[in-house]
Design brief:
The protein is of the alpha/beta class. The chain has 4 domains: about 210 residues, P-loop containing nucleotide triphosphate hydrolases (Rossmann fold, 3-Layer(aba) Sandwich), CATH 3.40.50.300; about 80 residues, Elongation Factor Tu (Ef-tu), domain 3, CATH 2.40.30; about 100 residues, Elongation Factor Tu (Ef-tu), domain 3, CATH 2.40.30; about 190 residues, P-loop containing nucleotide triphosphate hydrolases (Rossmann fold), CATH 3.40.50.300. Helices cover about 30% and strands about 30% of the residues. The protein is built from 18 helices and 28 strands. The strands form 5 sheets. Strands 7, 8, 9, 11, 12, 13, 15 and 16 form an 8-stranded antiparallel beta sheet that branches. The longest helix is centred in the last third of the chain and has 20 residues. The protein is elongated. About 5% of the residues have low confidence.
């Protein structure tokens, strides 16, 4: 069977942007008309409407303005998409409104574009909105920008006018990151230099607008190196088949390649790539496929399959650029829903670093962001995201924020980098402050019997075993069984549980970030006292923040603080929900609950990880006992 050459043609997605009345609708109508992408009855209807309105020419804007009038009756982030093709290439136009009120619409339409057409009215020259659209194109890292200087017929096709506008915009664009900038003088109304060259501007020797669209390089912004496959759903039509469906966000994949499933970290190999038309020998970015794997692994929507040895970044603290799309201003206390690929997590804006004046490109201090404003923020999420920076991978470097109460999309964001530098600085400041936290006029009193003597008598070393993990992960269950095993071996233990200390010692504390910090500070000091008496202190606390756990570690000598990350997928923890807390938090009855409305920062280098959604409690305890013996805390069994 001979393949259809039309199906193998490449495609260019481009967006159009311009101020009101710059002729954007007319340009799109001209492209559709002159490429014969308009049905005869549509053309006849527009011709009749133009005559009834007394127009001298066919009003090409009527091909698109019917949709626009309907769309702009309310503020949305919807964009009208138009499709047309030539013998050389297929095209998708993202048609966005030009009014400043709809700046956010351009962000939406341009998010997947590889080229942006910015229209400038030759009569008015470069205006604020022209700069705004150029800045957004640069911000979104659209690789090609085409500046179409329209309405040249109204300035007598004056070459000097075109050259002045090109010079002005080039000077502005020099402050931006625009890899490819092209200028074309056109008259969308009369068709000059749109599809055909025309004879009215003999001084212009460049290509027509369509010729440029047909020949510009496509695929430059696609990442074909880093394989990222966000899972949309698991498919199991029968007992003999289990596949994972989704669209490849970036990179390529072949059967037989080694992959890793995130967040579980389980390794396996791709068995086959399945589509409706049969199996593929290779799939690439943009392909909607189903992967089958060699091993049985628990995978669900929101997980990501990546190639082994080529992992994305992972962090719960992110430096991002945010474009605000809601009439309700940014509220830094709201736990927004962050949608990243197919994964949803809760997130809040921890810091608004600055707001960008899109006219001057200056950075301004700000307390919030309002409709259409763009700023740099620090986001903290309840679970780590697996991402690439937007600069190298647009597919895994973008996200949207959703209001949890109205379910409206309120912002679009681009991830710049993980915010580990700031996190480390906060840890250092916290440790420095905590190191001097003591009452005045007191000295440390040593006990009559030193720790070394107690360790010798007990027959084991003293240490603090710190269990951290989400609520419902199994921290207390593992710790209690471990305590029983240690007790049977004659080892002195001291058990500190997160709920128990709040019955008395920490009963005055709530669950704000400050109270959580104080909770761990007090527990760390009590664990230190138990350590000095030669005990193995077992501490089971969610302790969601890295700096708090690092503070607890800093209280003890090197090698005597043993951090056990009791790892469990959040959805599994929610299903367990032994105390019914997740149900209450999701219903809004509990504020600032870790994993729902408050973040959990995973340990970066724990002493041991036990995955209780994958192994039994007994196996987890065995792993901890073996590690304690290996480190010489307890004797060999």
């Amino acid at each position: 069977m001979t393949p259809d050459p039309y199906l193998s043609m490449d495609m260019l997605r481009f967006t159009t942007a311009g101020s009101v009345d710059d002729g954007k609708s007319t340009l799109i109508g001209r492209l559709l008309l002159d490429t014969k992408s308009i049905f005869e009855d549509q053309l006849e209807a527009v011709e009749r409407a133009s005559q009834l309105r007394g127009e001298e020419y066919v009003d090409l804007a009527l091909f698109t303005d019917g949709l626009r009038a309907e769309r702009e009756q309310r503020i949305t982030i919807d964009v009208a998409y138009r499709f047309f093709a030539t013998p050389k290439r297929k095209f998708i136009i993202a048609d966005t409104p030009g009014h400043i009120q709809y700046t956010r619409n351009m962000v939406t339409g341009a998010s997947t574009a590889e080229l942006a057409i910015i229209l400038i009215d030759a009569q008015h020259g470069v205006i604020t909105q022209s700069k705004r659209h150029g800045f957004i194109a640069s911000l979104l890292q659209i690789p090609h920008v085409l500046v179409a200087v329209n309405k040249m017929d109204l300035v007598g096709y004056d070459q000097a006018v075109f050259q002045r506008i090109a010079a002005d915009y080039t000077a502005f664009a020099s402050k931006l990151s625009v890899p490819s900038l092209t200028f074309i003088p056109i008259s969308a109304l009369l068709g000059d230099n749109v599809v055909h060259r025309g004879e009215n501007m003999p001084w212009y020797d460049g290509p027509s607008l369509l010729h440029h669209l047909e020949n510009v390089s496509v695929g430059a912004s696609r990442n074909l190196v880093d394989f990222r496959f966000p899972v949309q759903m698991a498919v199991r039509p029968n007992a003999g088949f289990r596949g994972f469906a989704g669209q490849i966000a970036s990179g390529t994949i072949k059967p037989g390649e080694d992959v890793v499933v995130l967040p579980s970290g389980r390794s396996t190999r791709v068995r086959s790539i399945v589509t409706f038309g049969g199996e593929l020998a290779e799939a690439a970015a943009g392909d909607s496929v189903m992967l089958t794997l060699e091993d049985e692994i628990d995978i669900s929507r929101g997980d990501m399959i990546v190639r082994s040895g080529n992992l994305p970044q992972a962090s719960a603290a992110l430096q991002c650029t945010l474009c605000w799309m809601s009439e309700e201003p940014l509220n830094r206390r709201t736990p927004y829903i962050l949608q990243h690929t197919t994964r949803q997590v809760r997130a809040h804006v921890d810091e608004l670093t600055y707001r960008i004046d899109v006219d001057s490109l200056h950075r301004e201090p700000a307390q919030t962001l309002t409709l259409n404003e763009i700023g740099r923020v620090r986001l903290v999420t309840t679970q780590p995201l697996f991402f690439d920076s937007y600069q190298i991978n647009r597919a895994t470097g973008n996200f949207v924020l959703i209001d949890p109460y109205s379910n409206n999309t309120v912002a679009a964001g681009m991830i710049r980098r993980a915010d580990q530098e700031l996190a480390d600085l906060k840890v250092a400041n916290f440790l420095e402050k905590s190191a001097t936290l003591r009452s005045p006029n007191v000295v440390w009193e040593r006990t009559a019997i030193g720790r070394e003597q107690r360790e010798q008598r007990h027959g084991h070393q003293a240490a603090v075993i710190w269990f951290t993990g989400l609520s419902g992960s199994g921290k207390s269950t593992v710790a209690r069984l471990l305590e029983r095993r240690l007790y049977d071996l004659g080892i002195e233990t001291f058990y500190l549980d997160g709920d128990n200390v709040r019955h008395g010692l920490n009963g005055d504390l709530g669950f704000s970030a400050a109270d959580r910090k104080e909770n761990i500070r007090r527990v760390g000091e009590v664990a230190k006292l138990a350590f000095e008496h030669g005990h193995l202190a077992l501490c089971t606390f969610i302790s969601p923040f890295r700096e708090d756990r690092r503070f607890a570690r800093s209280l003890l000598p090197e090698g005597r603080f043993f951090e056990v990350y009791v790892k469990c997928d959040l959805e599994v923890a929610k299903r367990r929900d032994p105390k019914g807390l997740y149900a209450k938090a999701l219903a809004g009855e509990i504020k600032e609950f870790t994993g729902v409305t408050s973040p959990y920062e995973e340990p970066e280098a724990p002493d041991l990880v036990v995955e209780t959604d994958l192994i039994s409690v007994e196996d987890a305890v065995e792993a901890i006992m073996a590690e304690l013996a290996t480190r010489g805390i307890i004797g060999s069994r």
